[in-house]
Amino acid sequence: MFRNPLSVGVDIGNHSIKAVVLQQKKEQFELAAFVEVELTKTVINDQHSVNNAELLSAMRQIKKQLPWQAKAVTLALPDSAVISKVVQLDTNLSEEEAEFAIVQALGAASPFPVEELCFDYFPLISDRFSDSASTTPFQVFASRRETIDNRLNSLLKLGFKPKVMELQTHALLWLAEYLAEMGSHYNQWGVVDVGKRHTEFCMKPQGSAAYHREIRFGTGLFEDQEAATDLGSNHSEQFTKQLAEQLKRQIQLYNSTHPRSGIKGLWLCGGGQSLVSESLLQRLIGLDVTWVSPFQHFSCAKKVELPHSMSSQYAVATGLALRGLA
């Protein structure tokens, strides 16, 4: 009898690489493994390319801690490394004509030559568009071929089989959708991923494309200050207040553009657990706030021990693993 395939989500960050392995067992997902390897050097540069030697070394450590059958991998790119564009195409175009039109549109929108890009596209289906419409909107995503290939090549060298390359925002929204299915009162919740360099704010409005904003505000500066001054809880209060101000602006902007799909609460994830006061943030922004526990609704394989502390830093990797099982 064939075993259900394992899905590996790999989150390549600036300061660590995380992997989560899931497997479908009857009507439930099983957590087969999770691993985090901290990096001694920054793997990703400002142009979103990776240091292949460092990535290869870290992934070799990760592979040793995964089940030997765990080969199929889903990866993510930062949203800032991806060109996202909606293109209106004539409904009568052939597939070749549609692709040519999309290449032309990318050539006008991209700072890089089209020959250096990998791209994907699909029609946006909505009740708002009539069958008799003369044009159809297509969602187009594109990224530099080098940005994708240097990630794939490192994994291929280790015997992994990369299957999907997603946006980081989409990985978080896959997890949010799964959590909403597990608890109905979490519908229309946004996701806030608190990182060292910046914070991601994303939401999936009903009937619309994913909404995403990158906030240039992260834990790195405060963690450095805390280490230098040892102010502890005071830094947590300061950071939470500043994060609340950033989020209130983003929530106000979102609500002004999506008045029919208001935010009912926020999932928090990322590595900022020590600096964010959940209760204070909730009071300041006036919404329910909960730290993500991405492994909460999974059964566990026999050898898997859940972490004693929070596991919210595995949110992206878990979302990617769920995407691989879709």
UniProtKB/TrEMBL annotation:
Pfam families: PilM_2. It comes from the Bacteria. Transmembrane segments: none annotated. InterPro entries: ATPase_NBD (IPR043129), FtsA/MreB (IPR050696), PilM (IPR005883). Coiled coil: none annotated. PANTHER family: CELL DIVISION PROTEIN FTSA-RELATED, ETHANOLAMINE UTILIZATION PROTEIN EUTJ. This is Type IV pilus assembly protein PilM. It comes from Photobacterium piscicola.
